[in-house]
Amino acid sequence: MTIYMTDHEVSAYLHNLGLEIKRSTLQQWRHTGGGPSYIKIKSKVRYTQESVDAWLNSFKLQKSTSEE
């Protein structure tokens, strides 16, 4: 089942993961093309948990060749 979250819920979700990302930052990212992908249902913005997790996973660090 797909979970749809508001920007407030996404901010709280990220806070629980140790990231301090404010609602206003999410709103700004929507206008500048950054942040997790979202959908609009009528005039309401919603994020799926999958899109937030995918966005977070896009920042995973790659091992450098010196670490192998």
Give a description of the structure:
The mean pLDDT is about 90. This protein has about 70 residues and is of the alpha+beta class. The chain has 3 helices and 3 strands, in the order βααββα. The N and C termini lie far apart (about 40 Å). The chain has a 3-stranded antiparallel β-sheet with strand order 1-3-2. It has one domain (about 5-60).
Unreliable runs, pLDDT <50, ≥5 residues?
Answer: none
Give the domain tally: 1
Rg is: 14 Å
Helix- and strand-based class? alpha+beta
Biggest sheet details: 3 strands, antiparallel
Helical segment count: 3
* Share in β-strands: 5-15%
Helix content: 40-55%
Quote the average pLDDT.
90
Tally of DSSP β-strands: 3
Topology as H/E string? EHHEEH
What is the topology, as strand order, of the major beta sheet?
A: 1-3-2
Cα end-to-end separation: 39 Å
Q: What best-fitting shape do the alpha-carbon axes yield?
A: globular
Features of this protein?
three-stranded antiparallel β-sheet, 43% helix, globular, 68 residues
List the helices and strands and how they pair.
Elements: E1 4-5, H1 7-16, H2 23-32, E2 39-41, E3 44-48, H3 49-57
Antiparallel strand pairs: 1-3, 2-3
